[in-house]
Amino acid sequence: MNFLRKSLLYKLVGAFSLLSLVTVGLVTFIAYIRAKESLQESIFARLNVAISLKEFELNEWFDNQQRAAILLADSPDIKHRIRILFTGKKNEPNYQENLVFLSNYFSKVISIKPDIQEISILTNAGIVKLSTDKSQEDTYQGLGNTITYFEPGQTRIVPNIYTSSLTGKPTITLATPIIDESGKRQAVLAMTLNLKAIDRLIREKTGLGKSGETYLVKQLTGKNVFISGDIAEAERAEHKIISEAVESEAINSAMQGIDGFGLYLNYKGAPVIGVYRWLSENNLGLLAEISQKEAFQPAVKLARDIILIGLSTAGLLLVLIYFLAYQIAKPVLIITDAAADIEAGKFEPELLESVKNRFDELGRLARVFQSMAEQVHAREQKLKQQVAELRIEIDQTKKTRQVAEITETDYFQALRQQARQLRRQKDMK
Length: 429
Prior knowledge:
Elements: H1 2-6, H2 8-74, H3 76-87, H4 93-112, E1 116-122, E2 128-131, E3 148-149, E4 161-163, E5 170-179, E6 185-193, H5 195-203, E7 213-220, E8 223-229, H6 238-243, H7 249-255, E9 260-265, E10 271-279, E11 284-291, H8 292-295, H9 297-343, H10 353-356, H11 361-428
Parallel strand pairs: 3-5
Antiparallel strand pairs: 1-2, 1-6, 4-5, 5-6, 7-8, 7-11, 9-10, 10-11
Helix pairs in contact: 2-9, 3-4, 9-11
């Protein structure tokens, strides 16, 4: 610190270095904040678009399944064979023929439409008469809160997702009546949907980056569970995914029917930027999230590049400033040395030759200083000459006084000697 106080050169260089660091830091901070804000707005817009597309695709998917169920239930051939199935006897050849035909037909439908997991024909009382899953036959499958029941003319349904008592997994079952020629309901067609189809639809993350994730959440038995989502099976087994409750600020808000977006911690406790929406038509919460680290990586890279470029540029400018400051400090040092020589009684005008030829303020200072130094030197020489002459006069005065003193002494001595001689002569007489 003492060195900095005493050195003009290092004061200039130090001040510029500090100013450069502050400027680079300020520019980096502002650029990072602005880039982060722009990225945040862009990502929110992208996530909103992604969620809107997922919602549209999900509604379309449910509508397609509804239409498939209606087509099956309205098929004249299916109605005819089901009537035989319900009115005939099991030991009749016609009964067995229709039973085999319906089983094969529904199995073929499932093979063609993988979104359908199971097709069953139920009595009006809810007893499974025929099913592609033989374990379901002759069991009771109520048409209450666990099944989405709709009439053929119903254009919009709200699918009911429930936890299956047989599998313990979330299940969606659509049921529609089979109406006979007289307009009476003779049976019910129930179609259990494959949630893996929803999972494929929702998990598609085009445009959401590597960490992008979209998933559906449903509240079942008092807890929020995944209906689908980009959850790696290596992390948790499928039965744990659907049975474990998931919690986050966004999930809880979506389950309360609140739409929103923001920066928050997801169900894994990882910081994300996300958008959440309550799908009232499907009674589901849909969320789209991206890791904040990935989302703001361009802003971090921009800040890093600004720092590197700024520090590199500041380093080059620092070298230039050092030489510039040296060019400023060097003439000052020369003038200072000249002043020190004058103080010591020496004066060498040629020391200022390299400075006084400059056209800037330092050259003017050197010329004025040289003129002043020459005047001081001339006055000093004149003063020395006057002092020397005065000393000569003093010496001459001293010599004259000494001669006068000597002459005066001899004079008095001669008078005294004459007085003694006169006394002697008088005494002799």
